[in-house]
Amino acid sequence: MSEAPTGGILKSADGQRAGFVALIGAPNAGKSTLLNQMVGSKVAIVTHKVQTTRSRLRGIAIEGQSQLVFVDTPGIFRPRRRLDRAMVQAAWGGAEDADLVVLLVDAQRGLTEEVEAILKGLQDVRRPLLLALNKIDLIRREELLVLAADINAKVPFAETFMISAEKGDGVADLRAYLAAHVPPGPWLYPEDQIADAPMRNLAAEVTREKLFLRLHQELPYQLTVETESWKELKDGSARIEQVIYVQREAHKKILIGKQGATLKSIGAQARKELEEMLERRVHLFIFVKVREKWGDDPERYSQMGLDFPKE
Ligand SMILES: Nc1nc2c(ncn2[C@@H]2O[C@H](COP(=O)(O)OP(=O)(O)OP(=O)(O)O)[C@@H](O)[C@H]2O)c(=O)[nH]1
To answer: Which residues share a beta bridge with 18?
Structure first.
């Protein structure tokens, strides 16, 4: 067997396709359910190439020779606070970055205010837009056709799919369409990273995400989270210790906050998500350490699966 030219990490690019698919929709539209159907048991890799909150990797699906990388565009609606507004902008940026954008609509709820708001936002997105009407098991076909026409009258979608994410109806068609329409090119993520994202990285990624969500522009990007220890306890819970490395004492202060309040709330959010993800109780201990100059050490970047920025 001959080795792939990339050293065996990526498969040969013959006939391969790969791309980012932004899945957007109002809360409860069924995004998670659809992703589970599309991605199956495969967990997304978690070493982001770029450290931003723009889009979160939700899962990777392989369909034939195509790799579909699903990204979330968090907080696309309800921009109440300034941070939220910044997130909304970032979210639309995420849609702009994607190769294809799928709007998932709960067909039973129909054209709600939230859906209207998303449609408005989508008018400026210069990407192929696909509409997926979900929960078709709950409504009559005639109503579905009317809804499809109403939505397409507002924003012309390249294609409209009618699916039941829960029952699986129509999901294969959508998947096949996406697979055929992502750009030709080598896969974006090596196959082995998709199957088993190391749990320690995953846990560190969760905390890192909470840090960015909470502190946003206050903190510089030179910050890293490492999971130092992970113990399975007898009562079924997990004890996880993490260290957040920052470059300066001042950053440490910001991160910890008054009387530890900032770090405490970040820790609480991370723990909650970890508990949901791992389906068990989690004891999370986070320490903050100053490690000067780690930002200049290329080795650290590659450990995190990041490219070392040239300047
Ligand atoms: N009947 C029916 N229910 C569905 C279908 N797809 C999703 N649901 C239900 O809709 C609810 C919301 O689904 P989620 O997948 O959690 O929705 P979501 O868009 O990820 O929600 P957020 O994470 O809050 O944005 C759940 O109770 C699902 O079981 C479907 O095709 N038919």
So the answer is: 67
CB of residue 224 inside a 6 A radius of ligand 1: no
Does the beta carbon of 28 lie inside 6 Å of ligand 1?
yes
> Which pair of structure tokens corresponds to residue 41?
């048991």
β-strand pairing of 238-246 with 223-232: antiparallel
Question: What's the maximum distance between 2 C-alpha atoms anywhere in the chain?
Answer: 64
Quickly list H helices, 229-297.
249-256, 261-278
Distance CA 222, CA 236 (A): 35
pLDDT, tens digit (0-9, with 9 covering 90-100), for 185-229: 988 876 655 544 557 777 888 898 888 888 876 665 567 888 888
Among the CATH numbers 3.30.70.3550, 3.30.300.20, 3.30.1360.120, 3.40.50.2300, which is that of 198-303? 3.30.300.20
Q: What separation in Å is there between the alpha carbon of 28 and the centre of ligand 1?
A: 5
Report pLDDT digits (tens) over 18-39.
Answer: 998 988 888 788 887 888 788 7
**Rounded to whole angstroms, how far apart are CA atoms 182 and 172?**
16
Name the CATH superfamily for 17-191: P-loop containing nucleotide triphosphate hydrolases (3.40.50.300)
* Residue 271 pLDDT grade (very low, low, confident, very high; cuts 50, 70, 90): very high
60 in the Ramachandran plot: left (φ > 0), alpha (ψ -120 to 50) or beta? beta
Q: Give the residue range(s) of CATH 3.30.300.20 domains in the chain.
A: 198-303
For the chain, residues classed under CATH 3.40.50.300 are 17-191
Q: What is the pLDDT of residue 86?
A: 52
Closest CA to 219 of 1, 73, 61, 51: 51
Q: Ligand 1 mean position to 171 CA, how many Å? A: 14
Q: Report the C-alpha gap between 25 and 20 in whole angstroms.
A: 16
Distance 31 CA to ligand 1 centre (A): 6
What is the spatial distance between Cα 113 and Cα 95, in angstroms, rounded to a whole number?
A: 20
Q: Does the pLDDT at position 105 exceed 90?
A: yes
